[in-house]
Amino acid sequence: MKSTTHPSTQSLLKISRRSVLNTFGLGSAAILLLGTSGISAQEEEKEPQPIRWGFVGTGSIANQMARATKDSPNAVLTASSSRTLEKAEAFAAKYEASKAFDSWAEMCQWDGIDAIYVATPTSVKEEISIAAAKAGKHVLCEKPLPSLPATQRIIAACRENNVAFMDGTHFSHHPRTLQLQKEIDTLVGKRRTLDSIFQFRIGDKTNIRMSTELEPMGALGDAGWYNMRAIVDYLDPTAELQSVSAIIRREPETQAVIGSTGLLVFSDGSSSTFSCSFDAGESRNEARIVGNQGSLDIPNFLGHDRDNSASYTHSARTNKSGKETVKVEADRPDAALMFEDFAAQVHDPSLRKNWETKSERTQALLDAVWASALANEDSQE
């Protein structure tokens, strides 16, 4: 078995210290002289203060992320907001936050927080994220984003106000994803195909994900986002989308999108098929990457096992002994690692472009699939 540890946790202090030096224009010579500048070794390695978080929304995903902050030494849940003060207070009490608001706008202006986590319906994410950025708060926004233009406006607001932005995709932060990104060309050679599936069941028609007003893309936005992020994380990032063909399936009563499938083809000759749904008879979540020299099977591609580890199976054309299953260890859940990576880019702005680009590329693919699906739907009427 192979194993690895997540780099952000171990390097956060060094990253934070380097960003402080860069901020004041100190070069490598100045770094070498720190030992004689009156700064003690203990002060050099002093841990930065945790990011103080304000949560907008108190639903199921907000509860999951609140638990994740408990596993992150660089995050502390400080405030919550909801449409009613009663809900905000209950959420704050549950997670030991110090303040509750019935107005997200008021919370954004409070100087007791450093960052906002947006866990609201997609229809209001842009407004909240931009307001938070203008208030000088870093922004972690749940996926999906409303559209590529909206995503770009949010990121522009964050850049203009020198705050960090990240979307809430957990698996991108797990060591398995980082290890595969580093080794994928060696493991499979020239990447040819990526097939992914994410399906589960929502039986409650009152769920906000079944509302065309709150979540216009339905299953395509909520679940299909992960299919698109798999493309961003595992196929060649320099390849451009050449063509896309997709269809959607709607729930008859609510007209919510409850399923989608499609094919995307890229300029380097690679392609990706995807399938996502809210009405599956069984839950499935897996991805497969095939290259000209081998293949990778990634079970539970957007999650991890109970011990926080995640595995993949490698099969090489030249491997006569068959398949090899590799277990990649992690010291905490991927959502907690996301908060760690967020803290790292707060302290080191040079890390922000990577996460901004991932969000833009993921949303661009999602928008292209959505446009194709709507066009195919119109042609059938």
From TrEMBL:
Transmembrane region(s): none
Domain GFO/IDH/MocA-like oxidoreductase, chain residue ranges per copy: 188-296
Pfam family, one: GFO_IDH_MocA_C3
PROSITE patterns tied to this protein: TAT
GO molecular function terms noted in the UniProt entry: nucleotide binding
Gene3D superfamilies: Dihydrodipicolinate Reductase, domain 2, NAD(P)-binding Rossmann-like Domain
Domain of life: Bacteria
Domain Gfo/Idh/MocA-like oxidoreductase N-terminal residues, every copy: 51-166
PANTHER family assigned: OS10G0403700 PROTEIN, PTHR46368
Protein name as it appears in the record: Gfo/Idh/MocA-like oxidoreductase N-terminal domain-containing protein
Organism name: Roseibacillus persicicus
